[in-house]
Design brief:
heterodimer, A: alpha+beta, Nuclear Transport Factor 2, Chain: A, Archaeosine Trna-guanine Transglycosylase, Chain: A, domain 4, five-stranded antiparallel sheet, five-stranded mixed sheet, 5 helices, elongated, B: alpha+beta, Alpha-Beta Plaits, Rossmann fold, 3 domains, nine-stranded mixed sheet, four-stranded antiparallel sheet, 15 helices, 17 strands, 40% helix, globular
Chain lengths: 167, 345
């Protein structure tokens, strides 16, 4: 896997993609992993140490996957998306663009289904939003609100509840 | 009283055990070896091997405190106990239905890790701290790596190595779920990894975990198939690999650094004999282990062969001691770089 530690300007640019959530800076080093993925790293091994490691062994991961920086094919613009685990890592920074789901909606969310939301919930939100549980205040993922009142589900498959659990 | 189809929990458990005994009988040679280790207690050992272990979890303190997690899980009607004094993150769950733990929201969000208590012991003994440089040589599925990251508060460095590609995926997925940020995942045969790091990099480790692949005699409760697959040849073959892995790791370890050698098996060839081999070939000091649970000392004689007396400082855990799996843990400190293996060459 090709990866590169982001310099300050690249890091700033990536993080600016999440200003609408209230995230303005993060303490972790960021690593571009492949063409789109970005990972946050807090380890003490330096870039040089890791480069030396790469020369002798396949490196399969560095730190935590926090988001994507991809190009929207429709308009050529950068599209920045947070990962489920980044909303836990940066939970104290996230203040805006939060969509709260009630208990029934949350069940659908954890099953991996898209969720119908009402106007009040939508509240002019559009694009990627951080999903919050009304029941206990947990951040439970990242979804996308379209033109209709639909929240599109971006919960990774391995983090969904199997159908048999919920009756 | 807990009942299903007019049967009590005890009746269900008894039927489960009888079924397992019929399908996976223990081999005579295995029983004899365990009798040598345990004497008459071998009956208790065999009896418990055909029962299920209690559900145990470890609170992921990177994401939530033990107090908060306990409250949340109790809301499901589950009973949570914290059996190890001084380690509130270690919990036993009862009153939950089968599979409910792994499918709970708290698990999906990485608030806890389903982990057998015996498997938590190596990290409880090693106690990695923020700023340490830790190598987890045989890391998948990641239970001990995620435990280390929590103890280190995501600071310092963990290199988590796993040779098998499929198992790297599982490791990676568990590290993500638990929010581990201070890790570098590598995929290499453990011996080659250590040798290459020494020869070609300046990377140093002050803590290493060698949780070696083993024949799994300690995990018979989880995988009773091991009763059927068990054979002495496999023990000898595995012991040879374990010696090589532990030796390579010890060469890489910093002077004054600490290494844990652990297995989930009970055969002395894979446990105390490996430690004895390390004592005889390296300048190491075996450290006494203190943990708040019942365990035995390492044995110092087996089949007429006497081992170094310091091997008794190791931890030997039988399933019947604490109603867990069986396990072996040795903590050693590297005193100098002296290595007799090199001199012999």
């Amino acid at each position: 896997m090709i990866f590169q530690f982001m310099d300050n300007s690249k890091k700033k640019k990536f993080i600016s993609g999440f200003e609408n959530f209230g995230i303005d800076k993060v303490p972790e080093s960021l690593v571009k992993w492949g063409s789109e993925r970005v990972r946050a790293y807090t380890g003490d091994l330096t870039k040089e140490d890791i480069a030396a490691l790469v020369d002798i062994v396949p490196v399969e991961g560095i730190g935590l996957y926090v988001g994507k920086d991809s190009i929207d094919k429709k308009n050529g613009n950068h599209e920045y998306r947070l990962s489920l685990d980044s909303v836990h890592l940066w939970k104290d920074k996230i203040k805006f663009n939060i969509l709260t789901l009630n208990e029934e909606q949350e069940k659908k969310w954890f099953l991996g289904n898209d969720v119908t939301i009402d106007e009040q919930q939508k509240n002019n939100l559009k694009g990627f939003v951080v999903i919050k549980s009304k029941e206990d205040g947990d951040f439970i993922g990242v979804g996308k609100v379209g033109n209709e009142n639909i929240l599109y589900n971006f919960l990774p498959k391995e983090r969904r509840v199997k159908v048999s659990v919920i009756n | 009283m807990f009942m299903v189809n007019n049967k009590t929990r005890e009746e269900i458990q008894e039927k489960y055990s009888e079924n397992l005994k019929r399908r996976f009988p223990a081999k005579e040679e295995f029983i004899e070896r365990m009798r040598l280790l345990l004497g008459d207690e071998v009956k208790d050992f065999l009896e418990i091997c055909y029962t299920e272990t209690p559900d145990s979890i470890r609170c992921n303190t990177i994401k939530i405190s033990p107090e908060k997690l306990k409250c949340r899980l109790e809301k499901y009607g589950w009973k949570i106990t914290q059996p190890l004094n001084g380690f509130p993150e270690v919990m036993i769950v009862s009153g939950n239905s089968a599979g409910a733990l792994g499918k709970s929201k708290e698990h999906l969000l990485g608030y806890f890790y389903v982990q057998e208590i015996s498997s938590m012991l190596p990290m409880l003994v090693l106690q990695p701290k923020a700023g340490d440089a830790l190598l987890d040589l045989c890391a998948s599925p990641g239970s001990k790596t995620t435990q280390a990251a929590a103890l280190m508060n995501n600071e310092g460095t963990i290199v988590a190595n796993e040779v098998n590609m499929g198992r790297v995926g599982i490791l990676s997925s568990n590290l993500e779920r638990c929010g581990v940020t201070n890790v570098v995942i590598t995929r290499k045969d453990g011996i080659a990894l250590c040798n290459n790091i020494i020869k070609k990099t300046n990377i140093k480790f002050n803590k290493i975990l060698v949780d070696a692949p083993c024949t799994g005699e300690g995990t018979l409760r989880k995988s009773p198939k091991t009763f059927v697959m068990w054979n002495k040849k496999m023990i000898d073959k595995t012991a040879s690999l374990q010696r090589k892995l532990a030796s390579a790791a010890l060469k890489l370890l910093d002077v004054a650094g600490e290494m844990i050698y652990s297995t989930c098996t009970l055969g002395p060839e894979e446990d105390e004999f490996v430690v004895d081999y390390l004592i005889k070939n390296f300048d190491v000091e075996i450290e006494q282990i203190n943990l708040p649970l019942k365990f035995r000392n390492g044995i110092t004689e087996w089949n007429g062969k006497k081992l170094d007396k310091n091997v008794s400082k190791c931890l030997r855990l039988y399933p019947q001691d604490n109603n867990t799996d069986g396990f072996f843990v040795c903590k050693m400190k590297k005193i100098s770089d002296k290595c007799l293996l090199e001199e012999k060459k």
